[in-house]
Amino acid sequence: MSHIVIDSDKCKACYLCIDECPKKLIKVSEKTNKLGDHLVEFCDPEKQCIGCAMCATRCPDLAITEVYRG
């Protein structure tokens, strides 16, 4: 079972990760960064994340880390 962690201090709200997730588990959040941009959030209540790390690979700010929990 995998999930991702998004570092809100690094996220610049480019939203590239949203398009990369094959399961569409990353969404625009209500939280904002210090510039007022809406951050992204990982939403996986049904544990659908496949651990592909496409979102982390696409993130230009290295704000996403994939975590595997067995």
From TrEMBL:
This protein's UniProt keywords: Iron, Iron-sulfur, Metal-binding
Key word Iron-sulfur present: yes
Stretches that traverse the bilayer: none
Pfam families, sorted: Fer4_7
Domain of life: Bacteria
Domain 4Fe-4S ferredoxin-type: 2-31, 38-69
Annotated InterPro entries: 4Fe4S_Fe-S-bd, 4Fe4S_Fe_S_CS
Molecular function as annotated in GO: iron-sulfur cluster binding; metal ion binding
Protein known as: 4Fe-4S binding protein
Organism phylogeny: Bacteria, Candidatus Scatousia
